[in-house]
Design goal:
This protein is mainly alpha-helical. It has helices at about 40-50, 50-60, 65-70, 75-80, 80-95, 110-120, 125-145, 175-180, 185-195, 200-205, 235-240, 260-280, 290-300, 305-315, 320-325, 330-350; strands spanning about 10-15, 20-25, 210-215, 215-220, 225-230.
């Protein structure tokens, strides 16, 4: 696995080969079961534990960490969805090495260097996300007199290289069928829930069973807080009906009859996916988040508008729906559009004298 380092924390394997993580100064242990190593939840937990140290840094007027601490006290931060707050916390923890940097030292070139370094170590999308979070933070600070300007404003994100594989690409129909056929009895319900409702892995695995009533699913996305309502598609209903009985509070459960953990499900999914790749039944780059793109593409090809797709995915804006539905094959829809267009033209044509 990739080596993870966090300033102020000791990360090591114990004599049984299990990963451990402790805050060096306070000897506080990070629960790696609740916050697996390297995840957003892990960095957020490290940030929470290190708050005592961070408070001392925050005493320095005009420092970057002072701005972070002030921002995290406000409704602007606390009103964010829990998943978004965790994402922000993870990025703030990543930036702890520059916590003492005076706000007056931040300019566009420094923000670009931070973005580029993050892209090199965390990936292009994460680097762009960090730049966006900095822009939000600096804009909040500018409005309250901590900065004269927003040094991250107007800086573009790093573009994906031409020919680079698309992240979370849509699945083909053949891949969907191959995965459902190969999935174990405990994996299949969770994968089907993501496949036929567009819920992300975290939301699908945590979905309480009492959120499904009368063949309908009503929940909210953990990331945006937006409501999601789905009358259950027939294939999903059939898979859930045939799933092994269990007593877990969640709709989906592991082979032990307990709620899935993110780590346990990911390990089982990756093992199955690698096997299917070797057999040539699925292509490379198959991800569970790709199922959100898949559902959006299917809806778009079926004629759904962008607002409808956004509602189906629990998105506030149609811009994200447009992103998810990119790559939809609209030939069938456009044939019908042009047929109607031809009929309308015929109606408007004046009769020959």
């Amino acid at each position: 696995m990739t080596i993870v380092r966090v300033k102020g924390f000791q990360i090591f394997r114990d004599r049984y080969g299990q990963w451990r993580c402790y805050h060096r100064k306070t000897k506080t242990r990070v629960d790696l079961k609740a916050a697996p190593l390297g995840t957003t939840e892990f960095f957020a937990e490290c940030a929470r534990i290190a708050d005592v140290r961070g408070a001392k840094t925050a005493d320095k007027p005009g420092s970057f960490w002072m701005l972070v601490c002030e921002y995290r006290k406000t409704a602007s931060f606390m009103d964010l969805a829990p998943r978004t707050r965790a994402d922000y916390q993870g990025l703030f923890e990543y930036l702890r090495p520059i916590s003492d940097t005076p706000l007056a030292n931040f300019d566009r070139s420094l923000v670009v260097r931070i973005r580029d370094k993050a892209a090199a170590t965390l990936g292009r999308r994460r680097g762009n996300y960090l730049k966006s979070v900095l822009s939000i933070l600096f804009n909040w600070g500018r409005e309250r007199g901590f900065l004269l300007d927003n040094p991250a404003s107007g800086i573009k994100g790093i573009r994906r290289q031409k020919g680079a594989p698309e992240a979370n690409r849509p699945w083909s129909d053949e891949e969907r069928e191959a995965v459902l056929e190969a999935a174990s009895a405990s994996l299949r319900p969770a994968i089907a829930l993501m496949m036929f409702t567009g819920l992300g892995p975290k939301d699908a695995l945590a979905l309480p069973r009492n959120f499904v009533k009368g063949g309908e699913i009503a929940t909210r996305r953990s990331k945006t807080g937006e409501p999601v309502f789905w009358p259950m598609p027939a294939p999903l209903a059939a898979i859930l009906t045939s799933a092994p009985a269990h007593m877990a509070v969640t709709l989906c459960a592991s082979s032990l009859g307990r709620p899935w953990t993110q780590g346990g499900f990911s390990a089982s999914w990756l093992a199955m996916r690698k096997g299917l790749e070797k057999e040539g039944k699925v292509g490379p780059g198959l991800t569970l988040y790709g199922l959100r793109h898949t559902l959006a593409v299917i809806l778009r090809e079926g004629g759904a508008d962008e607002r409808t797709i956004a509602d189906a995915l629990g998105q506030r804006t149609i811009e994200m729906a447009r992103h998810y539905a990119r790559g939809a094959d609209l030939r069938g829809k456009m044939r019908g559009v042009v047929k109607d267009f031809d009929a309308e033209l015929a109606k408007r044509k004046k009769p020959t004298q």
